[in-house]
Structures are given as structure tokens and as C-alpha cells.
Amino acid sequence: MTTLPRRAFLLTLTAAATVAAALATVRSAAAQPAGKKLTPGPRDVLIVIDVQNCFVPGGTLPVKEGDQVVPLINRLAAGFQHVVLTQDWHTPGHASFASTHGGKKPFETVDLAYGTQVLWPDHCVQGTADAELVKELKIPHAELIIRKGYRKQIDSYSAFFEADGKTTTGLGGYLRDRGLRQVFLAGLATDFCVAWSALDARKLGLSTYVIEDACRGIDVDGSLAKAWEKMTKAGVKRIQSTNLAV
Ligand code: VGL
Ligand code: ZN
User: Fold this and answer.
1) Which domain holds residue 184?
2) 115 domain residue, yes or no
């Protein structure tokens, strides 16, 4: 035998390593070595939470700087093959509105059948301009819009489960059926709908990233710090948009 078989063997090894590396990239962004930027792959989905007129300045429940995430989210979304959007979508007289509970003011709480509910100004009422997606949000390839909070007696911060913790929006099943196993979250508000969605994504066993600078919080009574603490404990990964190769 000459040295040729050995060379051929080495070449095969190199080719195998290249294929393995390519597969790792395709399989999951998390498979990339630490320090390297994450590249969204075909099993990854960006979930854009509640980028609606109600949550930006001028809306009924404005989140400070809520409008500032829009150009960033547009850019990030262009780097994801799969994008899902959510819309807070309440009935008039919704149980989460302070106005529904005589004498209560926004940001006070009330005890409902499923637990303590923070009360909000009337917001995101179905079919109103206030509930529409912000018009500067440009994600034409988004594959699904999930509406939530449309049952008069139950709020739903999370994109996965309503506030009773049982009623599902269908998003978990949708992601499972589509083979989307790793979620990246952006949008409004960090300490409510983004955090609750992230925590439920973890409950469903999904690998979960929150892109901090692509979110803004409401921060009522220290809710922002509390939300990050809960998310970190649950294994949610806190990243910045600069950690993504998009
Ligand atoms: C939200 C409060 C009430 C949110 C929705 O999108 O974070 N917050 N409804
Ligand atoms: Zn709401």
C-alpha cells in the first residue's frame, strides 16, 4: 500500500468534519461555540410580542421607548426564516381593565378566579386602531399571528397559556407540529407579555432566548427586575441583539 489511502482517509475526515459543522449550524443556533454569534437556523423562530399601537407612545398603555424597538425588530426578523407575531386582543369590558371593576384604578390589583390580576387602562380592544400592529413593523414573511386575551374573563400575557395557566392559545402545538424547537423573543413588554411567554416556553421544554435590547418594560413595582430573576431561574437566556449574526 502507498500513502494514498492515508491521504484519502484524512480527506474523508476533513469532509466529515465540514459536514458535521454545517449540520450543527443547521440544527441549532445554541450549538455554536461560546463567544460566537448565534445564527438562526430552520428550527429557530422569532416571536415578536405585542408590537401594537396600544403599547407605544400615543397608545392606551404606552411602554416607555416602546417605539424604539421597531427598527431593530425589523432587522432581526429579516434574519429569521420563521417569525410569529402576537397581538393582545381584548373584548370591551375585559376583566383586566380597571374600568370593569367599579372604583379600581389602573395598576391596582383585583382577585379573579385564577388569581391576582393587575388592572390596566382599557387597551388593545378588538378591531380598534389601538390594537393594530405598529405600522412601521415590517415583517412580511411572518408566518402566524397569535391573538390572545380575547376571552372576556381571562387575561393572557403569555403567547402560550392564558392567565388561568390551562387554556392554551395553540402556539405550543403549532411550534411542535412545525418542528420549531428554539424560540427567540422580542417586543413589549419585557416584564409582562415577553416574560410570561418566555417562562411558558421553558415549561414546554423549548430552548428560550430573550433579546433584551429588542424589548422594553413597563416596570410597575419592581416588576422588571422580578421578571428577569424568574426568567434567569427558569433557564431563559438573556442576550443582546449583537449576540445574533443577523
Ligand atoms: C401587556 C399588560 C397588559 C403586555 C398586555 O403586552 O406586556 N401588558 N396587557
Ligand atoms: Zn392586555
Assistant:
1) 40-91+124-243
2) no
Question: For position 17, what pLDDT does the model report?
Answer: 53
Domain count, the chain: 1
Beta carbon of 120 within 6 Å of any ligand 1 atom: yes
Could you identify the residue written with the cell 380592544?
125
Q: Helix 195-203 crosses helix 223-233 at what angle (to 10 degrees)?
A: 20
Summarize pLDDT for 30-60 with one digit per residue, the tens: 445 667 899 999 999 999 999 999 999 999 9
Neighbours of 172 (CB within 10 A): 18
Residue 21: CB atoms within 10 A of its CB come to 12
Q: Is the pLDDT of residue 99 over 80?
A: yes
Q: Could you tell me the distance, in angstroms and rounded to a whole number, from the CA of residue 136 to the centre of ligand 2?
A: 21
- CA-nearest of 122, 115, 131, 111 to 196 is 115
| In-domain check, residue 188 | yes
* CA-CA-CA-CA torsion sign (208, 212, 214, 216): positive
Instruction: Give this prediction's pTM.
Output: 0.87
CA of 40 to the centre of ligand 1 (A): 27
Instruction: Give domain status of residue 158, yes or no.
Output: yes
CATH code at 170? 3.40.50.850
